[in-house]
Amino acid sequence: MSVALERPARRESGGLVASVLSTDHKRVGLSIMVVAFWWFLLDGVFALLMRTELARPGLQLMTRDTYNQLFTEHGSGMIYLFVTPLALGLGVYFVPLMVGAAGIAWPRAALAAFWLLIAGGLTMDSGWFTAHGAAKFGWTAFYPLSDANRSPGLGMDLWIVGVSLATLAELVLAACILATILRHRAPGMTMLRLPVFAWSQVATTLMVLMSFPALIVAMALLWWDRHLGGVFDTPGGPAAYQHLFWFYGHPVVYVMFFPFVGIAAEVIAVFSRRRFFGYTAMVLSFLAFAGLSMSVWAHHMFATGQVTNQYFSLTSTALIVPAGVEYFDMIATMVGGAILLRTPMLFAVGFLLQFLIGGLTGIIVASPPLDYHVHDTQFVVAHLHYVLFAGSIFAFFAGVYYWWPKIFGFFLRERLGKLHFALMVVGTNLTFFPLHVLGYEGMARRVADYSPHSGWTDLNELSTLGSYLLAGSVLVFLANVLVSTRRRQPAPADPWQGHTLEWATTSPPPPGNFDSLPEIRSYAPLYDARVRT
Amino acid sequence: MVADTRDEFLSLFSVYEWLMVAVTAVVFGAVFFALVRYRRRDDEWPRGRDEHKLAESVYAILLALIAAGLVALTFRTESRVDSLSAAPKLRIDVTAFQWQWLFQYAGSDVSVIGGPSSEPVLVVPAHQVIQFSARSDDVIHSLWVPDERFKRDVFPYRTTRFDLVFDRLGTHPGHCAEFCGLRHADMNFRVRVVPLDEFRRWLEGRA
How far apart are the CA of A377 and the nearest CA of chain B, in angstroms? Predict the structure, then answer.
């Protein structure tokens, strides 16, 4: 168990070239996450620019045209290039370790997908340097706003190609992860002994494989319509585009959610010193969630008046059941435990409490008569950021503080971590909570300006202030990385007394992952070895 | 039977609101209770059961019942909000285009349109069922009257119909809610709700 301590602190051997050409799943997974994080920083700056513009009525900082490009690239970047790749990058790194495999299935395909992802992102961003600027029709590119007449320019086509490439990359990554789980599990690691995080990846990758092709088709058809015409310009065409888009666009919400629930579940179990409570129910809820996620897409279209609202309202509201079970299991794991509030646990609890707000407003937008009012307003902006930022990103940081010692062999600083957490909690709620009120009172989304007589200035100022605090919290995190890397506090193989197999190898794990594996009799094999029941 | 959509919204919303408050209280309470009560005090390894199938099943059924209740209430409200009257008191044709609104009163040649620096003001009678037939000349727009708690997307190539009843006199702001390009944020209008006889006089005066 103390092998890592005896080993000299290891620099990344072989340099940059080896690291970007390696088919080791840990290198590929880490590269994906690092690149995705760069897009988080870039698109976060876009968000700060928008929030600064919105602090006061009138236009102070930019033109309407620039604002429209910024919110399009912010949403597109965060979804296509940051959270989705992050969700899968985590799987590429940790799924083989958690199932006791020596590597990932189809490692060269995974490496190719990493490069495809970069190509897609750069293609999308290169739109900024074209004559008409970057894409400016929102991350959804609704037709006919996105047709050749209303959105002329190369930047729009680059966006379409970029989105397609990134989506193709994500499909390949999902296939690699799922194949690893199905084919490369260690002896004794049955499907019902997979860690909760690995099950979250099963559900995630199934959704990717079933829904992401619809987006590639939508992009191909949109490209065809822009250049050759005659695809969507019919009475049913604009709605047909939305159906194709949301058939991808809703499952992707859960793709950007499940792996982070998985992280929170692992962290809560480890820091409560208990086996995760209600494993079977959790697995069933993941599968029910994934199944339902394929039949809720048109709840984004209630206000169109062109879908069977009742059906999609029914399936969407039914999500209360699996979501409620997941909450029950996570809280029940804490009750009766021995809870240690280290930084990973703080972020996991932050996820649990803040995601709840996004989940509950989700029940509101699942009701068509309520959605008629709040749809396409700042209320929805608040809802989706509570889900994705206050939820997924908090759980992501729980994972960062939890797994950092495993990945790099040294700890992140605890006090800076707690400062990061505190600032991020205040910043998140200050930024996003006021948007509920603004949307309810009549402020639409995707607007660069609002009337000075609307009475919305104070809440907008508050939200902008919050966004600066958020930026500050990210800077604290980066400072933490810097300080911790400069003066390393070496980590042993299993610093948190973990439950799952990644803690049974050295920190960082060697190229083949394991020298030997412990006996696997449950979904928490290391816990079993420690506590004989 | 169409009622004011604002009233329909508020009575349904209050149910969801109470549920949200209750769930938030229970979850926050449970989490903070666990954090305080089960804080690690020494190097203990607690023993406890890993699952409780009966409790989990009962709980899941309870959740399903809550979901069913919400869906039932939602369906009831929606059937009223979405219903179209066979004999509306007034028909108004709406044309949305980048980035303005044109309102035409059916059965007369009265119309209202906004200008570069003026928002169009749609004058409507109070307490009457008004049927809107909306169409876009270009991209998708969305007609939203926040005070009525209602919006409906306006598509090109097809007509969208919906009924509204305005019970509150006075002027209410309206916006385009669906992002529609460069000047989306400026695509506003106002609804002025007046008593029926005043509306009749206004309509005759405009004809």
Answer: 7
Nearby residues of A329 by Cβ (< 8 Å), 6 or more positions away: A265, A276, A277, A278, A279, A281, A282, A285, B56
C-alpha to C-alpha distance for A156 and A250, rounded to whole angstroms: 23
* Chain segment A217-275, per-residue pLDDT in tens: 999 999 999 999 999 999 999 999 999 999 999 999 999 999 999 999 999 999 999 99
- Residues in B closer than 8 angstroms to A331, CB to CB, are 27, 30-31, 34
CA distance A346 to B185: 40
The alpha-carbon gap from A184 to the nearest alpha carbon of chain B, in Å, equals: 27
Closest in B16, B38, B180 to A336, CB measured = B38
Contact B157 A314 (CB under 8 A): no
Q: Any chain B CB within 8 A of the CB of A352?
A: yes
Alpha-carbon span A135 to A226, nearest angstrom: 14
- Rounded to a whole number, what is the distance in Å from the CA of A123 to chain B's nearest CA? 23
Q: Is B149 left (phi over 0), alpha (psi -120 to 50) or beta?
A: left
In this prediction, residue A241 carries a pLDDT of: 97
Measure the CA–CA gap between A100 and A102, rounded to whole angstroms. Answer: 7
How far, in Å, CA of B153 to CA of B176, rounded? Answer: 9
* A399: number of Cβ within 10 Å: 25
Closest CA to A389 of A326, A431, A340: A431
Provide the CA B173 distance to its chain's centre, in angstroms.
14
The answer to whether the CB of A475 falls within 8 A of the CB of A416 is no
Q: Which residue in the set A65, A274, A304 is minimally distant from B46, CB to CB? A: A274
The whole-angstrom separation of Cα B176 and Cα B180 is: 8
B184 neighbourhood in chain A, CB within 8 Å? 444, 446-447
* C-alpha distances out from residue A372 to A13, A202, A405, A505, Å: 57, 35, 48, 53
Judge whether B89 is closer than 8 Å to chain A, CB to CB: no
Amino acid code (one letter) for B152: R
Residues of A in contact with B138 (CB under 8 A): 144, 150
Taking the Cβ of residue A442 and every Cβ of chain B, the question of whether any pair is shorter than 8 Å is answered with yes
B156, B136 contact by CB (below 8 A)? yes
| Nearest C-alpha in B relative to A454 | B173
Per the prediction, chain B carries an average pLDDT of 95
Cβ contact B177–A442 (<8 Å): no
- Distance separating alpha carbons of residues B82 and B73, to the nearest angstrom: 14
Q: Is the confidence at residue A455, as pLDDT, over 60?
A: yes
CB contact residues (below 8 A), chain A span 228-287, against chain B: 233-239, 272-281
**Which helix H or strand E contains A415, and what residues bound it?**
helix A414-441
**Residue contacts between A and B (CB atoms, under 8 Å):** 239
Question: Can you name the residues that pair with B125 across neighbouring β-strands?
Answer: B194
Please tell me whether the interface predicted TM-score (ipTM) of this complex is above 0.85. yes
Asked if the model's pLDDT at residue A69 lies above 90, the reply is yes
Condensed to tens digits (0 to 9), the pLDDT of residues A99-110 reads: 999 999 999 999
Q: What whole-number distance in Å separates Cα of residue A278 and Cα of residue A265? A: 11
Q: Which of left, alpha, beta for A95 (phi over 0: left; psi -120 to 50: alpha)?
A: alpha
Token pair 């959605």: residue: A371
Residue in A68, A145, A337 closest to B38 by CB: A337
Query: How high is the pLDDT of residue B2?
Result: 65
Contact between chains at B41 and A338 (C-beta distance less than 8 A):
yes
Asked if A296 and A250 touch (Cβ cutoff 8 Å), the reply is yes
Q: Residues of chain A with pLDDT > 90: what percent?
A: 95
Find the closest chain A residue to B60 by CA distance. A321
Chain A CB contacts of B13 under 8 Å are 364, 370
**pTM of the entire structure?**
0.95
